[in-house]
Design brief:
alpha+beta; about 170 residues; five-stranded antiparallel beta sheet; 5 strands
Length: about 170
């Protein structure tokens, strides 16, 4: 993995997603679209880019403890799309790495209706292996890690080689 760092650090305008995806695919920052420029319509260009790299997007795994944080401890999780330890699952990621989101270490405020999130890369044990914000290199933890578990990861985008079969 090539560590690429974001060049724009500004709440809701930063390019951490662009830098994380560049790192994931061993590309230069300029070789990856800045998905923020697409606003609410970012998903289609994101999928097109992933496809152009020989990968496909299988979906998202969520940390359901986030809902407990927002809805209260009585929130009951149903379904199986919870954050696992990825080494116990069938997922390979991109060379063993996965794109994930955490609450922004710089801009998170508990109680915000729409908290700012931040893109990171993780390994199959949900360890954060690259934070594209150069200001976070000495960071010892992410917001709400104690409550959320999984190193504060909120969700993981499952990006897999095209030859991986959906099951």
């Amino acid at each position: 993995m090539k560590k690429v760092y974001q060049t724009i650090i500004d709440q809701n305008k930063g390019n951490c997603m662009q830098a994380a995806i560049a790192s994931l695919f061993d590309l230069e920052l300029e070789e990856v679209p800045d998905f923020k420029q697409f606003g609410a319509e970012w998903h289609e260009p994101f999928l097109d880019f992933i496809n152009s790299q020989g990968y496909k997007f299988l979906g998202t795994m969520y940390n359901h403890n986030r809902m407990k944080l927002e809805e209260g401890p009585e929130y009951i999780v149903k379904g199986k799309n919870r954050l696992p330890t990825l080494k116990d699952e069938k997922y390979k990621g991109v060379n063993g790495f996965f794109y994930a989101a955490v609450f922004s270490p710089k801009y998170y405020e508990r109680g915000d209706k729409s908290p700012t999130t931040h893109a990171v890369l993780i390994d199959n044990n949900c360890n954060i292996v690259h934070d594209p914000n150069p200001e976070n290199q000495e960071l010892e933890g992410y917001p709400e890690t104690d409550f959320l578990g999984h190193n504060g990861i909120l969700h993981i985008f499952l990006i897999e080689p095209k030859e991986t079969e959906d099951e």
